[in-house]
Amino acid sequence: MKRMNSKFVGALGLIAVATVGLTACSSGTESSSSESMAPSSASSAPSSSSMASESPSSSAMDPAANLVGAGCADYAKAVPSGEGSVAGMAKDPVAVAASNNPMLKTLTAAVSGELNPKVDLVDTLNGDEFTVFAPVDKAFAALPEKDLNAVVADADMLSTVLTYHVVPGQIQPSDIAGTHTTVEGQDLKVTGSGDELMVNDANVICGGVQTANATVYLIDSVLMPPAKK
């Protein structure tokens, strides 16, 4: 790591962080038949039933049900409860959830305008459904500070790197393997399965972490968008 290659440069600004919105609708247990009945006394039943049908009941009941990654146990030990835990993150939109996770402080600073006021992706990330590949703080710590500062100072480069970590729509671990087009416009590839998933050359530490509008995969290095021809 004596010299920084192009991968590190793109990596720096990393992250757009943060992960999926499981609706966590604990009250949606009414049968679909009650929805079709539509008696006036049960006017609220249709919305509860429809919400329940849109989300897997197992995930709604337990945000940790679909987690994958060799580092999930360590994450649970480091953040066993509170807003930054797996259960806590499921309650907030992704940018807010990421800001509560002590493993994603650098990523949060990058997407919130704290590192560069011209790059603030909070409203964008919180405003739709996404899959977010979120480099943890240790991934940033491995980068030379001088190079990181140079990328952060370049708003276009920072935005490019961050949006390369975000894919439209929520993708669960069972469907994540394959090639996905990012918000940045270029593709990234997820390989492997179970606890041995990789995103390009980065390892998934813990994936399938739910937020109110996104699915998050914590990864151990920043991703570099391919050079455009």
From TrEMBL:
Record's keyword annotation contains Electron transport: no
Signal peptide (UniProt feature, chain positions): 1-23
GO cellular component labels: extracellular matrix; extracellular space
One GO MF term attached to the UniProt entry: cell adhesion molecule binding
Region (Disordered): 28-60
Compositionally biased region (Low complexity): 30-60
Pfam family, one: Fasciclin
Alphabetical GO biological process terms: cell adhesion; extracellular matrix organization
Name assigned to this protein: Beta-Ig-H3/fasciclin
Lineage: Bacteria, Bacillati, Actinomycetota, Actinomycetes, Micrococcales
